[in-house]
UniProtKB/TrEMBL annotation:
The lineage of its organism: Bacteria, Pseudomonadati, Pseudomonadota, Betaproteobacteria, Burkholderiales. One of its GO terms (molecular function) is O-acyltransferase activity. It comes from Paraburkholderia azotifigens. PANTHER family: ACETYLTRANSFERASE C18B11.09C-RELATED, SIALIC ACID SYNTHASE-RELATED. InterPro entries: Hexapep (IPR001451), Hexapeptide_acetyltransf (IPR051159), Trimer_LpxA-like_sf (IPR011004). This is Acyltransferase. It holds the Pfam family Hexapep_2. Keywords: Acyltransferase, Transferase. Belongs to the transferase hexapeptide repeat family.
Amino acid sequence: MTVGSGVTIIGPLSLELSLNEETIRGITIGDNAYLNAGTRLACRNSRISIGDDVQIGPRVSFETATHGIVFEPDLGRGLDHQEIHVGDKVWIGAGATILPGVTIHEAAVIAAGAVVAKDVPAYTLVGGVPARKIKDIDIASTAQRQGAIA
């Protein structure tokens, strides 16, 4: 597990790992990330990367494994493992769930309670179950408002 500088983790933090060296090394948290209480990183035989300046609300769950819905004799439902990537400056609201294979691109916002099953483009707000695009984030007006506050 690699943790960048200036990272804040508000406990409890739940780590569910396949206990092998590769999986443990497969979790990276970038500089100045903020992980709120109850963050769950379920990284089983896969990888989770969290970029710089990412804000994660309470009770957010990252799930790198899923299984089929059909039970097969001698096989069960099987497991499918896929990586999760979170870009820089992403904000993930309370109680969101990020599913296997998802990439959340730079400065995207995930609404509270969303279940993210597909990639999220940069500068996009998504929400709902399953998460869908709500709107594009207007970079120019956001920068202008932040300049007015400063």
